[in-house]
């Protein structure tokens, strides 16, 4: 309706001041505006309306035939150009919609939705891809229930774009297979390492934390060059630093070092937050990093989905609405035995989002 209102306003002004044809060139703003939102047919209709009313203005103002013809020709050229632009825009929007659809399918295949309860744990996940239209990126996560307990991985692939997505898919696929086959968590990590050694370039690597819950009260953690998880116990947040730093996955052959297996007590009410560096390295306008540990202290509660939703919202507010790197948050909580959580649908936070403004 806005282009039509503009046409009517210009015609009304032309009739009131009697200047006639001098307002006709401005009628071209209507089809130009229509091209930003409407299709080619709508642009042509607005252009036709503008031309008819422009002729009326010229005749009423006793404009010379040559002047009126030039004004109408200009209006016609602008209308045709805007109609062509609108057609191209519509075609690009359809292509983009198809690309986003494929990206959604790829995301669900790579980062499968995680239910709100896995084994004894309450779980919530939030993943945001920095590329607004990509929907997926180089960060990865997976959580599976196996004969050896619940196992999970959170990682970050070096680089961006399709190569990073391909590597993330490789790591997640090998992890899901090995998690069901290998009784020892270190053997799961070794399987991933061997696969990456065969498929990655010399400069490529993946930082990751692999964790498992083989028996009640014990949580196993293997950190391969990744940011330390945050353990929440009695409302106190403590980073789980590796006893001995280990290289990222894919670089073991260069360093010769192997990761250690850490065993942590994990009791009722304890929580563990795993994340990628897109969270902790997110900066605000003053170039200050996002204080994840402080945010977790503020927002920790009995519902992981509420916690990660609050952290994600605070993270976006910290950076001004748009992340410049992929960011993943995965929170585990061991509910107290006295709690009886109601069954829930998969977490609303368990999805991938684009971080466009």
SSE-based structural type: alpha+beta
Low confidence ranges: 345-357
Question: In angstroms, what is the radius of gyration?
Answer: 29 Å
Oligomerization: single chain
Task: Tally the helices.
Answer: 10
Cα(first) to Cα(last) distance is: 27 Å
Order of helices and strands: HHHHEEEEHHEEEEHEEHHHEE
Shape verdict? elongated
Main sheet specs:
7 strands, mixed
Give the overall pLDDT as a whole number.
83
Number of strands: 12
Strand residue percentage? 15-25%
Helix proportion: 40-55%
Spell out the key features of this protein.
357 residues, alpha+beta, 7-stranded mixed sheet, 5-stranded antiparallel sheet, 10 helices, disordered C terminus
Description:
With 357 residues, the chain is an alpha+beta fold. 45% of the residues lie in helices and 20% in strands. Strands 1, 2, 7, 8, 10, 11 and 12 form a seven-stranded mixed sheet that branches. Strands 3-4-5-6-9 form a five-stranded antiparallel sheet, with helices on one face. Helix 1 (2-17) runs antiparallel to helix 2 (29-37) and helix 1 runs parallel beside helix 3. It starts with a helix and ends with a strand. The model is unreliable at 345-357 (pLDDT under 50).
Secondary-structure blueprint:
Layout: H1 2-17, H2 29-37, H3 40-60, H4 65-110, E1 117-118, E2 121-129, E3 139-146, E4 149-157, H5 161-181, H6 185-199, E5 206-215, E6 218-224, E7 230-233, E8 236-239, H7 252-255, E9 262-265, E10 271-275, H8 277-280, H9 292-299, H10 304-319, E11 327-333, E12 352-354
Parallel strand pairs: 2-12
Antiparallel strand pairs: 1-2, 2-11, 3-4, 4-5, 5-6, 6-9, 7-8, 7-10, 10-11
Helix pairs in contact: 1-2, 1-3, 2-3, 2-4, 3-4, 5-6, 9-10
